[in-house]
Fold:
Amino acid sequence: TQKHKVVVIGSGNWGSTIGKILAENTREHSDIFEEDVSMWVFEEDVDVPDDGTLRDQLGDKPVKLTHAINTAHQNIKYLPGIKLPDNLIANPDLQDTVRGATILVFNLPHQFMSKTLEQIKGHHLPYARAISCVKGVDISEGTVKLYSELIMEKLGIYCGSLSGANIASEVAAENLCETTIGYDGPPMDYKEPDGSSRDNLIKVDKQRQSKSSPSQLSLHRVPQNYPHVDSALLEKLFGRPYFNVQVVRDVSGVALGGALKNIVALAAGFVAGKGWGENTKAAVIRIGILEMVRFGCLWFPQSVDERTFTKESAGIADVIASTSAGRNFHSACHAVEQGVTVDEIEKKELGGQKLQGTSTTRAVYEFLDKQGQLEKFPLFVFVHDILEKRTTMDALPGLLIKGSKVM
Ligand code: NAD
Ligand code: 13P
Structure:
């Protein structure tokens, strides 16, 4: 049998952490996976921290990030202080990274996804499978799409999603946590709706979402000499003693939970910045969770399972972690404390890391506005209006009244 070749596309704070997990597992399950995991790195020159061992290995002049990762086995810019396995290989060439890979794990800030997918198109195996760890939504042509869906549409390959209460620095330090993988790929014995079982191209029901996107996707079968990609294989690939994986079929709910919780995290950060305490924060979180559920039910009625938001790590647990310790939370908090915008804090404090909440809030607002549904989402609108300086935190009591009336 053939071994799966696993690659990770993206090497930021979470990208590098997931790369570490994947490389630990491909080494442990080398009967199923090729041991080396290539990680696509958006190449840049980085300063070498003033650390004796690193300076001995890398010198004291700026170096290429790929060189630092492959020599010191550390992402000194985006995940400093964490030792990466030496079978995680940084590669600055995107097309070379994906060539021949049977499992593609996407882990980029959503801002860079469209361009990256364009560059990958035609260079990947037609029968590859993908998992998206990206938190965000794509709004174009009046529809809302999840990144798992964009990957399926742009590359024509099946894509699941991974999301959970997973603050990267904690996972990288191997502190115990859970995650949720949404995967509903075609089973090994998949038959066409008419009962036939053709050799190569198959049609599967896609997790339907926006009204304009097709509900079926033509997929290539993974050749039978590869181990079948299913929940058991994904547990082997992603699960670690410190990273507890639950696989569910609700790909859209997992992806959507990860995207929308960032709006709630910004709201919680604004409240914390004002010093208003835990009760006020709990009030906005409550309204936020209801709006997440409402958004899912309205726009993904055939795919999202409401329980994903309330039962899984990708829902409620991620809201809890992200409204206490995420970058969106901290940045919103600091913005209020310092009287500046969240965008300014992102540039000043995040060292090149990218917030996902601000652009998600703006995208969701634009979509809801076009759909004439703003009044059903008072918290999402409030966060948008704070970001755009259309309102101030003094309007919060009005939000709580609206929030309790709408729900
Ligand atoms: P990050 O915020 O650390 O982002 C920086 C990354 O963007 C770097 O890898 C950088 O090389 C890359 N980059 C910069 N310019 C680029 C360009 N023009 N093209 C392509 N890449 C470019 O990234 P991250 O934390 O790894 O986030 C990836 C995804 O993971 C996000 O959707 C995020 O929401 C999600 N996530 C993050 C965490 C976390 O704690 N960091 C946890 C769970 C999920
Ligand atoms: P931030 O991007 O706000 O840090 O959130 C991280 C996260 O998604 C934790 O699950």
About this structure: The chain has a mean pLDDT of 93. The radius of gyration is 21 Å. Residues 251-274 form the longest helix (24 residues).
